[in-house]
Amino acid sequence: MTWKELLRKKVMLMTLIMTAVFLLAFWFVAATVGSSESGGVSSIVNGGNLINSFSTGAFIVSMGFFFGAFVIAFLAIFSSFSSIAGEAEQGVMQALLPRPLPRWKWYLGRWLGYVTLGILYALILFTAILLIADAHASIPRDGAALVKAFLLFASVVPLLISLSMLGSGLFSAVGNGVFMTMLYGAGWLGGMIDKLSGSLGLKEDALHTLHNLTGIMSLLMPADGLQRKMTAELFSLEEMNGMVSMDLSFFSLDISSVPSNSFIIYAVLYAVVVSAIGLLRFQRKDL
């Protein structure tokens, strides 16, 4: 039912069109960056060329997943931001819930529908970005690293949908859309400041205060932290630290800005608690 509704509302159609545009643009950018290597990947004959090829591939892949994370996030948010409030405002909820169907089943059914669709889309996008990058540069090929990277890439979907459905039970459809967009933007901004703060030349006290602020932002919205952890796992950053330069300008990633495994556990608990609160709120909501 959830998939059919998204198709009826043309959410998936618009997503697929924008994805095609994004991947086409990414192909041309990757081709341009990849062609800057003298002779391409096939000419690698020494360690210096190998490192340069890896750095070029890291730049292309990081750029693809940087924008791909926005695509995944906005699909998760805008597919579910009106799941409760929007249908209640239109009278659809009142027509469905009087049937002999417990509210928790309806809520979990919607949640599973949105999450499975989002994860399937994440898999397609994840694969497409890697295939395009592989056509123009060297990319990581370790199977375990790719699996861990995908799980982290897709983990944003249930987190955002859980929070969006909770917001849909608290705010109006438009209000929840604005709330989710602003909250995701705040988390992204905190992550970006955290990555770039080391190059600002700030004093230690100011840097400590800035890190505390960005840490709070990441705790309120862990999505960007999960994406940074995904990139670190994809490139095995801990093993490569000091061997290969990851100074990729706007897409830079330093080992000090990568969240720990404890942050991953926190993000999982965050999603579970938010889902439980959203379900309990919906159980008591006066429609």
From TrEMBL:
This is ABC transporter permease. Pfam families: ABC2_membrane_2. GO terms for molecular function: ABC-type transporter activity. GO terms for cellular component: plasma membrane. Keywords: Membrane, Transmembrane, Transmembrane helix. The chain crosses the membrane at residues 12-34, 54-78, 111-133, 145-166, 173-193, 263-282. It comes from Paenibacillus graminis.
